[in-house]
């Protein structure tokens, strides 16, 4: 019996050793990279500048604000410009909604609440806003101002403007 168990034990040990060495015949490795290129990109949106109801008998100026929201990839320099709309940069105007109303409501937009620099395209005496992308939304305030005592036809007046983000 001793002879059989010693022989059996030896056979099992040889079989296990053979299996172990054949399962680990060797290893090999390789290095590789994961790559991607991120391009500069931006998106822009804007809210309306709404003056509300204007009383022509009032004196002084009316003000209102809107916002431009811009998001650009990090470190991307960009500029915000606003066109002149239906008027000129020196004299932006809103037109009446009623057919046949040829009156214009004068107003302008500015880069700051000091109302000194007209928000335009950077030409002439207009200014624009230059920023650098952070990867998060950045908000720029648009400051609107108009003279209150404009005795024109009662109507709803509007002007359609375009903000352009250049990068």
Keywords:
167 residues, Immunoglobulin-like, 1 helix, three-stranded antiparallel sheet, six-stranded antiparallel sheet, 9 strands, alpha+beta
Ends distance:
90 Å
Looking at CATH, the homologous superfamily is Fimbrial-type adhesion domain
User: Could you tell me the radius of gyration in angstroms?
Assistant: 36 Å
Main sheet summary: 6 strands, antiparallel
Q: What is the CATH class name?
A: Mainly Beta
Structural class: alpha+beta
Sequence of strands across the biggest β-sheet: 1-2-7-5-4-8
Number of E strands: 9
Taking pLDDT < 50 over at least 5 consecutive residues as the criterion, the unreliable ranges are none
Number of domains: 1
Strand-residue fraction?
25-35%
Can you write the helix and strand succession as a string? HEEEEEEEEE
CATH architecture: Sandwich
Subunit arrangement of the protein: single chain
Outline, from the CA principal axes? elongated
Overall pLDDT level? 91
Tally of contiguous helical segments: 1
> What's the helical proportion of residues?
10-25%
CATH topology: Immunoglobulin-like
What report would you give on this structure?
The chain is an alpha+beta fold and 167 residues long. It has one domain (42-166): Sandwich (Immunoglobulin-like). Helices cover 13% and strands 33% of the residues. It has one helix and nine strands, in the order αβββββββββ. It has one helix spanning 2-23, and strands spanning 42-46, 61-72, 77-82, 92-96, 104-110, 129-132, 138-147, 157-158, 163-166. The strands form two sheets. The protein has a six-stranded antiparallel β-sheet, with no helix packed on it. The protein has a three-stranded antiparallel β-sheet with strand order 6-3-9, with no helix packed on it. The mean pLDDT is 91.
